[in-house]
Amino acid sequence: MSVLRAEIDGQPATVEQLLTTTTVNYGHFTGMTAVDGRVRGLDLHLARLGHATSALFGTTLDLDRVRALLRQALAGLPGPVSARINVFPAALSWDGLGAPIEPRVLVLIRPAPEPATTPLRTRTARYTRDAPEFKHVGTFGLFQQQRLARLDGYQDVVFLDERGRLSEGSIWNLGLFDGEHVVWPEAAVLPGIAYQLLRRGLAELGVPELDRPVEPAQLTGFRAAFFTNAPTGARALSSIDEVEFAVDPELMDLLRRAYELAPWDEV
């Protein structure tokens, strides 16, 4: 995918600066779709970046400045475009790991991909991301697990935690529907922005939800399965392992309406 803009701290990124992002596997990011300088869930994206910088870098991120950098990078681009904000170390060495880390901010703008709508065939795999509560740059395991699933004839992967319970997908949150409740598997996962926006919308619509542990043997008790992430909102799963799910048009319409209740925030 072509790059429309790549700016670090508001200036065009140089090769030397990009070396750190490609050679130091320490940092975090958030990704979003922007249309005419507007983003859904902007408050959640900024909160994610601020919390992760404090926890992983031991410093405070100026969120007003991050917003200004994003606004600058989006200027004149009507969209939709895909925007990614990376927070990475200005410098990092083994000797300096015990000290606060000065952050740099990379804003990368690319054309937005066309959202896919066909249901996904998935399989389970025993895997838990490092520090799953953060959207960090340590993505080797995610690519490896998705690649192994594809080599095995599936399109994506659903992770099982150390106790064998369903947790999350490769780059998405998993949701299930038992005919009455939207059920969110209770496990250590990344609370995605789309997931949070969808839950806000479902609550506003009065849709009953449950958070509870789900084991693979319990999947036959669900009528439908879906996933949610920023590029797609909500998308149906056709199967998890040997358990097949019928696509529920009413459920998918409900999820779409709940997600679209989130306003487009001016950056």
> Major sheet, described briefly?
9 strands, mixed
Individual helix count: 6
Name the assembly state. Answer: single chain
Mean pLDDT: 95
Structural class designation: alpha+beta
User: Which CATH top level class of the largest domain fits?
Assistant: Alpha Beta
CATH superfamily of the largest domain: D-amino Acid Aminotransferase, subunit A, domain 2
State the separation between the terminal residues, measured CA to CA.
24 Å
Backbone shape: globular
Helix content: 25-40%
CATH architecture of the largest domain: Alpha-Beta Barrel
Strand content bin: 25-35%
Here the CATH topology of the largest domain equals D-amino Acid Aminotransferase, Chain A, domain 2
Low-pLDDT regions: none
Q: How many structural domains?
A: 2
Radius of gyration: 19 Å
Q: What do you see in this structure?
A:
The structure is a single chain. The chain has helices at residues 15-23, 42-57, 63-74, 140-151, 193-205, 249-260; strands at 5-8, 11-12, 28-35, 38-40, 81-89, 103-111, 120-126, 156-160, 166-169, 173-177, 182-185, 209-212, 224-228, 235-240, 243-244, 264-266. The chain has 267 residues and is of the alpha+beta class. It has two domains: 5-111, Aminotransferase class 4, branched-chain amino acid transferase, N-terminal domain (D-amino Acid Aminotransferase, Chain A, domain 1, 2-Layer Sandwich), CATH 3.30.470.10; 120-262, D-amino Acid Aminotransferase, subunit A, domain 2 (D-amino Acid Aminotransferase, Chain A, domain 2, Alpha-Beta Barrel), CATH 3.20.10. The strands form two sheets. Strands 7, 8, 9, 10, 11, 12, 13, 14 and 15 form a nine-stranded mixed sheet that branches. A hairpin with a 5-residue loop joins strand 8 (156-160) and strand 9. The two termini are 24 Å apart.
